[in-house]
Design a protein that fits this description.
single chain; alpha/beta; Glutamate Dehydrogenase, Chain A, domain 3; Rossmann fold; 3 domains; seven-stranded mixed sheet; five-stranded mixed sheet; 18 helices; binds 1,4-dihydronicotinamide adenine dinucleotide; binds 2-oxoglutaric acid; nucleotide-binding; Glu/Leu/Phe/Val/Trp_DH; NAD(P)-bd_dom_sf
Length: 449
């Protein structure tokens, strides 16, 4: 699909393509933001004078390193580790670590780039970064995971610090991995520095609600979009792709708000259960036993597992992609709209292709892009950092209320910014512009650094 840029922005995008060959996901993430920015340069010519867009597209620092580790048989393996410290204008680099075989520099840069604007939208003092490895955790024993995490942190620790760079989890990195990473950081540095990682266990500096935060936050965001349309989750049939951290707590919150989730998935296929998914079973299979979603059908004979099936063909009113990038293409988006979908909230990062985004916007449905809708995870990480800084821990109710208020204010900011820039109801423009302007103002204030 041909990108639609303002004439001042086209050459900047061409320069990004030339400087970052082969990094298609990064190109896509940059394209999505730059397409929104034409009117911003008209209102703020100083951003063009200071070449803010060009500077924002270039990471402040990119770290690539070797991660050697030994499996349980004693064989040696070598993976590649990454940390892209993209932008520290608003605070220390903040963003998760992804362990997945598809990881390469282009994926980490797309995620780090998105993170800059997402983190800005939260209004909290956090810059943007992301990291990870092409390590595949699937089928590895606990001790193999531990040895990998220890080796990864042995290199990464020198780049981290509570005021410098603060990783968390993402695909393939949850509470278990954060534990091994924190343990190794503590051992190497001889510092018990809680604020260096978020998503920690509750006994050692973690925050209540961080586990639930991305899914709950995305659901709060969709709830706000529905409220604008004088609607709610009550009685709505919903789809949630994935069955990991984000998907599980999205399903939980949708249930609480009166919706019914009939399908979820993993990379093998999807499960469809017309009377509504059994969340306790999914948690047992996924969070505890680390099994595949197809096993769900062993316990519910009225549920159907479709191997390699396309979850977006199931009719629904609300869709919440919560698995991975580019999981909804133009055709899937058209199918969703044709089947009566009125709202899409992205729990995952960039789950919709540019063609799909265009379909949603042209159909005029409520479409909440990831950098706004899934910001609740990183926002609650910032709340964890606040608690660590004052050696405090807050109750679940208080922390969840803070999360809900943050999601409401992100929604409001995106909604008002879209109106201010002449595209009412377009949360893509709202999120890109509002996030960009916050970072750009700080960059202008700092001079040429
Ligand atoms: N964990 C967090 O706090 C945040 C995560 N995200 C994003 O949410 C998404 C999911 O992340 P998590 O739930 O943390 O990871 P996770 O590792 O807990 O779960 C990922 C899930 O997606 C499934 N999956 C992967 N590829 C798939 C495919 N091609 N088709 C269907 N399912 C597939 C996996 O089987 C797994 O169930 C990612 O895009 C991540 O970047 C965004 C904001 C914060
Ligand atoms: O909590 C964090 O620091 C990062 C969350 C994350 O990786 C994301 O927002 O995509």
């Amino acid at each position: 699909m041909t990108p639609k840029f303002d004439e001042k922005i086209e050459p900047i995008y061409q320069e990004v393509l030339a400087r970052n060959p082969g990094e298609t996901e990064f190109h896509q993430a940059v394209q999505e933001v730059l397409e929104s920015l034409g009117p911003v340069l008209v209102k703020h010519p100083e951003f063009a004078d200071h070449r803010i867009i060009e500077r924002i597209c270039e990471p402040e620092r990119q770290i690539i390193f070797r991660v050697p580790w030994q499996d349980d048989k004693g064989d040696v393996h070598i993976n590649r580790g990454f940390r892209v410290e993209f932008n520290s204008s608003l605070g220390p680099y903040k963003g998760g670590l992804r362990f997945h075989p598809s990881v390469y520099l282009g994926i980490i840069k797309f995620l780090g780039f998105e993170q800059i604007f997402k983190n800005a939208l939260t209004g909290m003092p956090i810059g943007g970064g992301k990291g990870g490895s092409d390590f595949d955790p699937k089928g590895k024993s606990d001790t193999e995971i531990m040895r990998f995490c220890q080796s990864f942190m042995t290199e990464l620790h020198r780049h981290l610090g509570e005021h410098t760079d603060v990783p968390a989890g993402d695909i393939g990195v949850g509470g278990r991995e954060i534990g091994y990473l924190f343990g190794q950081y503590k051992r190497i540095t001889n510092r018990w520095e809680a604020g260096v990682l978020t998503g920690k266990g509750l006994d050692w500096g973690g925050s209540l609600v961080r586990t639930e935060a991305t899914g709950y936050g995305a659901t709060f965001f969709v709830d706000e979009m529905l409220k604008v349309r004088k609607d709610s989750f009550e009685g709505k049939t919903c789809l949630v792709s994935g069955s990991g951290n984000v998907a599980i707590y999205t399903i939980e919150k949708i249930n609480e708000l009166g919706g019914k989730v009939v399908a979820c998935s993993d990379s093998g296929g999807y499960i469809y259960h017309e009377k509504g998914l059994d969340l306790a079973l999914i948690q047992q299979l996924k969070e505890i036993e680390r099994r595949r979603i197809k096993d769900y059908a062993e316990y519910h004979k009225d549920a159907k597992y479709v191997a390699k099936g396309n979850i977006w063909q199931i009719p629904c009113q609300v869709a919440m992609p919560s698995a991975t990038q580019n999981e909804i293409n133009g055709k899937d988006a058209a199918t969703l709209v044709k089947n009566g979908c009125i709202a899409v909230g992205e729990g995952a990062n960039m789950p919709t292709t540019p063609e799909g985004v265009r379909v949603f916007l042209e159909a005029g449905i409520a479409y909440g892009p990831g950098k706004a809708a899934n910001a609740g995870g990183v926002a609650t990480s910032a709340l964890e950092m606040q608690q660590n800084a004052c050696r405090d821990s807050w109750t679940f109710e208080y922390t969840e209320k803070r999360l809900q208020q943050i999601m409401q204010s992100i929604h409001q900011l995106c909604y008002e910014t879209a109106e201010e820039y002449g595209t009412p109801g377009n949360y893509v423009n709202g999120a890109n512009i509002a996030g960009f302007v916050r970072v750009a103002r700080a960059m202008v204030a700092f001079g040429l650094v």
